[in-house]
Design goal:
- This protein has 389 residues and is an alpha/beta fold.
- It has one domain: Aldolase class I (TIM Barrel), CATH 3.20.20.
- It has 16 helices and twelve strands.
- The strands form three sheets. It has an eight-stranded parallel β-barrel, surrounded by seven helices.
- Strand 4, helix 5 and strand 5 form a beta-alpha-beta unit.
- Helix 5 packs parallel to helix 16.
- The longest helix is centred in the C-terminal third of the chain and has 32 residues.
- It is globular and about 70 Å long.
- The protein starts with a helix and ends with a strand.
- Bound molecules: flavin mononucleotide and benzoyl-formic acid.
- Pfam families: FMN_dh.
- This is L-lactate dehydrogenase (Cytochrome).
- Belongs to the FMN-dependent alpha-hydroxy acid dehydrogenase family.
Amino acid sequence: MTHFGDHQVSIYAAGMLAGQIPAWTTDLASLERHAAEVLPPEALGYIVPSAGGGLTARANVAAFEQWRIVPRMLRDHATRDLSTEVLGTPMAAPLLLGPVGVQTLAHPDGELATARAAAALGLTYVHSTQAGHSIEQAAAANGDGQRWFQLYWPTHDELCESFLARARAAGYTTLVLTLDTTLLGWRPRDLDRGYLPFLANEGIANYTSDPVFNALLDKPAEEDPAGAGLAFAGVFPNPGLSWEQLPWLRERWDGPIVLKGLQHVDDARRAVDAGVQGVVVSNHGGRQVDGAVASLDVLPGIAEAVGDELTVLFDSGVRSGPDVLKALALGADAVLLGRPYLYGLALGGQEGVEHVLRCLLAELDLTMGNAGCSTPADLVPELLVRSPR
Ligand SMILES: Cc1cc2nc3c(=O)[nH]c(=O)nc-3n(C[C@H](O)[C@H](O)[C@H](O)COP(=O)(O)O)c2cc1C
Ligand SMILES: O=C(O)C(=O)c1ccccc1
């Protein structure tokens, strides 16, 4: 049982008694501003912005504001327990570190720092296909921790099989198949800078550490980074994917499969028929379809349609403990965090990631307690009312 609130409060209480203030802000909403002060322009320009004019990214955050918590009183919450189990994976809290590519842009330790932070807090690390460190390196950093692998399904079957075999061998238990990025979205901030990390061989470590990928190259990646970048571009976009291909993947991965990026109830119903175990209701943090519906707005409908048959995860716009509470109350079994932990990574590597997670979990724990809730099972729709925006 983990009392994140007590833990965090005691850390800061001890610090305050010693006349210290925390190294970084505990106000997660302002983390982006702090990270912006330390991140190089390319990194900042890649991580922070979203597709188009940012309508969906803003809507994701704003959607949480229309839901308000109705705290309940005199419900003993002296003993609180945030722990849960999702698809057989034990979690200290219903929060995963979502798959984010190219974390080496934020900090040289990149995914290694994130995988270590996740393990230290008993949370699940999700390794991106676009990571700056390889499947095996991140697994070693994650150690005894819990880890899932996110797949961008390459157009090259043998490469896909190789990724799956490596992930399985390195102890990743669940496969997260991302469906919303078969083409990179229209991202003016990257386009205007003429910058894409992959062409500079940032974020293709899983590929350049793969024998099948390397066999596609004329020269080793170290000798010809541009060639490796182009070879990546030859296998990455996969707009031809369709539901008909899912059985192929199902046959090649014997653990749970989660489809990430669903926004429509009918797609969630098809996921049930496809024999997968879960979905992530997500619009990729607004980085793909600008103008897409806010992710939280479609969560209740999807949870109602498939919540009894599939594990329902959620991301896009989670910025605080109360946000996690709201997503769970609206039907999510757990949420994935995106940009906020990247800001922590930028500020302080592993410690920075841990700081963000501790703050978020402490705020969740304290908010739950003050609302009269002791466990994730207490987070039900009746805890919320809808207020005008
Ligand atoms: C810099 C960056 C890189 C990302 N890379 C991936 C990725 O490789 N695979 C993936 O499935 N999602 C990726 N995502 C999307 C996240 O998994 C997640 O859906 C999104 O960040 C959630 O929104 P939030 O940032 O508002 O929390 C990325 C997001 C960011 C910000
Ligand atoms: O930038 C992203 O959001 C992302 O998911 C991605 C997709 C392909 C290559 C690199 C990153």
